[in-house]
Design goal:
The strands form two sheets. Strands 4-5-6-1-7-8 form a six-stranded mixed sheet, sandwiched between helices. It has a two-stranded antiparallel sheet with strand order 2-3. It is built from nine helices and eight strands. With 231 residues, it is α/β, with parallel strands linked by helices. A hairpin with a 2-residue loop joins β2 and β3. Helices cover 33% and strands 16% of the residues. The longest helix is centred in the last third of the chain and has 14 residues.
């Protein structure tokens, strides 16, 4: 491909196991393309993605994807019970595991307040729940298989600040137990990340922790200032 055709260019970085790493940038920067490459929704046209030093194209798709949990902006839920929605990725999950991941996703608190608890029917696409509740169920479902890599693709972009804080708290508590990749346009989501990569036109233009990037007075700090004013 010619440089003009490339979505991601000269992109290279390492993520340590157990870290929380964020990829941020404006719409069209290449964030979602990057996250779609990890579970091999499509493959790189040059270079490689390595997990534990192994090219992800050298393992089976099923074994790769069994290690990955994904929460997207648009939550897919079914007209079934809360417990069955959480266990969808692992049908043989018992109630103990379902409840454990619900607690990890800060969903248990609202679930037990419902009349039928974990047996509550949530309606088509989870219409009987709030947006924040739906996202916390989606996070619990992503965790039920105990993934080594958890990817959040704009998972908090449509949430109110309280729901966003609960998801942030869950991410903070997961630190060390799995590697978390956060793809975000909304920078308040990623302040607690161990490392942040700022993408522009498919290239990393800045990287560091939130405090470091704010101190640079560059692209990230300008994004942050504009978002803070608009909110």
């Amino acid at each position: 491909d010619s440089p003009a055709d490339l979505i991601l260019q000269n992109l290279s970085f390492d993520v340590q196991a157990g870290q929380v790493v964020a990829i941020v940038g404006l719409s069209g920067a290449g964030k979602t393309t990057l996250v779609n490459l990890v579970p091999r929704f499509y493959d790189v046209s040059g270079g490689a993605i390595l997990v534990d030093g192994i090219d992800i194209r050298d393992v089976t798709l099923s074994s790769l994807r069994a290690q990955i949990g994904i929460v997207t902006q648009d939550t897919v839920l079914f007209d079934d019970t809360i417990a069955n929605n959480i266990a969808y990725a692992l049908p043989n999950a018992d109630r103990v595991r379902v409840e454990a991941v619900a607690r990890a996703a800060h969903a248990h608190e609202f679930i037990v307040r419902l009349a039928s608890g974990y047996d509550t029917m949530i309606g088509e696409r989870g219409q009987r729940l709030s947006g924040g509740q739906r996202q916390r169920l989606a996070l619990a479902r992503a965790l039920v298989r105990r993934p080594h890599i958890l990817m959040l693709d704009e998972a908090t972009s449509n949430l109110d600040s309280k729901s966003e804080r609960l998801i942030q708290q869950s991410i903070h508590e997961l630190r060390g137990s799995c590697t978390v990749l956060i793809i975000a346009h909304r920078l308040s989501t990623v302040e607690m990340a161990d490392h942040i990569y700022v993408l522009e036109d498919g290239k990393v233009v800045e990287e560091g922790r939130h405090e470091d990037l704010m101190g640079m007075g560059g692209v990230y700090s300008e994004y942050y200032r504009i978002q803070s004013m608009s909110e």
